[in-house]
Amino acid sequence: MASIIEVARLAGVSTATASRVVSASDYPVSPATRERVLEAARTLDYVPNALARGLLKSRVPVVAVIVHDITDPYFAEVVRGVEDGASAAGFLVITCSSERNAERERSYVRLLRSIQAAAVVFAGSGLDDPALNVEIERHLAAMQADGAAIVHLSPHALGEPEVSVDNAAGVAAMIAALVGLGHRRIAFLAGPRSLFVARERLAGYRRGLEAAAIPFDEQLVVRTSFDREGGALGVDTLLDAGTPFTAVSCANDLLALGVLGRLAELRIAVPGAVSVAGFDDISTASLTAPSLSTVRLPLRELGRRGFEQADRRLAGEEPERVVLPTEVILRGSTGAPPIEALVVEGTSTVPASSASPAALPALDAAAR
Amino acid sequence: MASIIEVARLAGVSTATASRVVSASDYPVSPATRERVLEAARTLDYVPNALARGLLKSRVPVVAVIVHDITDPYFAEVVRGVEDGASAAGFLVITCSSERNAERERSYVRLLRSIQAAAVVFAGSGLDDPALNVEIERHLAAMQADGAAIVHLSPHALGEPEVSVDNAAGVAAMIAALVGLGHRRIAFLAGPRSLFVARERLAGYRRGLEAAAIPFDEQLVVRTSFDREGGALGVDTLLDAGTPFTAVSCANDLLALGVLGRLAELRIAVPGAVSVAGFDDISTASLTAPSLSTVRLPLRELGRRGFEQADRRLAGEEPERVVLPTEVILRGSTGAPPIEALVVEGTSTVPASSASPAALPALDAAAR
DNA sequence: ACAACGACAGCAAACGTTTGCTATTCTGCG
DNA sequence: CGCAGAATAGCAAACGTTTGCTGTCGTTGT
């Protein structure tokens, strides 16, 4: 691998001059000399060594996006948004998937710090591992002190994200829509307790309930992992608990997909017996049977703004907090609650714990 | 950001000794000294500078995966496979999405070369831009000469991939399955002409036809982009051409998803009027309505083997070519062809170009 | 004709590591 | 008691850049 020294030698100039030519500095170099250097660089297939350069400049033109799970379409879409902006601005984007493992996240942050990445964008929320978070935050602080830009797209241990989506309002809006359809007993699959974003969405659920003057029932919220398995498991948990419900709202689409799957296995009609709603509007949502009602998040836009924010910081400008709006999309998986459920709800105010399973009359343990 | 010099000073040792401690070299250092250095490093929050280290060692413990499209589940799954292996071996994985843009791919390769990544895994096939490919190959050759491992998971400009999936056999098997169901007029959505992998799959289609002694009809293959839009467009093209068909086999699932969507819009029954088959078995495939028949690829395994291969090369061992098997998964989107079509096929051997549109009797331009 | 200045080129230091070699200390053995 | 040799520690060079400073022209203005 040719170095600038060889380029300089071949061009018959000093390394200083050669450097000034190849790095497109604004230092004056005569056209003739410049041409000779360029020619030499071409001949030798010269590629500047980013390490040496970064060593000196303490910054490498890379923006990293840290995601929880690279197979989750939510993150894929956000990454693409970041790419939209970053590539245009001459940065290269690298994606790091923590697999929801705080230790791995720590490793990535360390790597990024040690290669002096210009910016790191956290697409997912914090991981709630106190010990490791302390370390991660220390790295981030050090990077920021070094001039790097750190941007969060979700709530995290240290506070509010720079750019985000109004999760709580989104869920609340979906709850309102469900209530509008006639539902009163709405279960909520909240995702993992450890994810900040999951907590926000849960808060949205409570807020939505409150707005409709429906009492919160702990029995109706179940916490699982943020994936399809979690959704299936959630259905089982809900059914086992025996508390009646006519709709289940999920903290993300993957959960809802799992719910749909499990419900289909159990031959429970959607939306006939139970309505199902997701959150995120990943591309699969419109393809399922029935198609999934969900809350659309401007994911790509979120990524784009995330980069914008980073770029702004790099330029020394003040950050500017932005919250993107969401939109409820009603598709085939939601409908009016079954008649029996309405009757039960309408005629009595049975306490949740002792309510009859009238909302799902056809269901008993044997059916599963 | 504390450097090793400060650590050494604080510990009261030379940088050499400090380096030997923090880099876990096997050079002997007395326990007492070691402890002092470690303590100092902890106090100062020392993080080794990967740039300086890489500058000297000419290798950074990073394996990069280059994909075409980060939102494509196919690639996400492969990346995850690479991560499985790489993380275990102490490498960090970074994903670079070229967006099928050869120039961007070139930039990534340059970056990777210039940061001395230990390995780069190409998940997708080559991009068929001769000029840029020459440059990319030059970079790769230089990296390899430098000790980096380059692994291809798909056919590319310079030849066979180190690890791959038997694309042609997979498609051929699907064609055989379709033929087994009674289909004779099978269209093929081939994806873009410029993708090597698309060509392989098209070859599989021809081979499958040949095995069933069905003549190849150029009218039945349509080339589009490798995404949902391509699938929808493919349906339109096929219908416009007027050549009858009872099944459409797609070169990937995204195309098939697009086909399913467009067919639903046109109210053409699947599999009643047309059977649809995909390729890849992305996770969405089992969730659509009807669920998608497809060819399952061991994607995660592919990624895992890809890393294995890279690791082997890094260790100086000989590469070992491996081809992973595929499996046909028949779900709800395929079935027997409609009766009318069978009659037409059975009673006459009308040349393709003048065949009546009997295979899709309910269809005319007005319907769309 | 001379001073002053602008345009260009080169020297060498610095970035933060690793490592070959040399220097020092200590141990144990003859 | 002297010495070989093991066990440690340190010196300094090297990796490939960038850039402040200095030096050398040639040109312009008076």
List keywords for this structure.
DNA-binding; 368 residues; disordered C terminus; four-stranded parallel β-sheet; alpha/beta
Mean pLDDT reading of chain A: 88
Helix and strand element order of chain A: HHHHEHEHEHEEHEHEHEHEEHEEH
The share of residues in extended strands of chain A comes to 5-15%
Name the assembly state.
homodimer
Largest interface, counted with CB-CB under 8 A?
A-B, 53 and 53 residues
Shape of chain A: elongated
**What is the radius of gyration of chain A?**
27 Å
Strand-helix topology:
Two copies of one chain form a homodimer.
Chain A: H1 4-11, H2 15-22, H3 31-44, H4 50-57, E1 60-67, H5 73-88, E2 92-97, H6 102-114, E3 117-122, H7 130-145, E4 149-152, E5 163-165, H8 167-180, E6 186-189, H9 196-211, E7 221-222, H10 228-241, E8 247-250, H11 253-265, E9 275-277, E10 294-296, H12 299-314, E11 322-324, E12 327-329, H13 339-347
Parallel strand pairs in A: 1-2, 1-3, 3-4, 5-11, 6-7, 6-8, 8-9
Antiparallel strand pairs in A: 10-12
Helix pairs in contact in A: 1-2, 1-3, 2-3, 5-12, 6-7, 8-9, 10-11
The structure holds a DNA duplex (30 and 30 nucleotides).
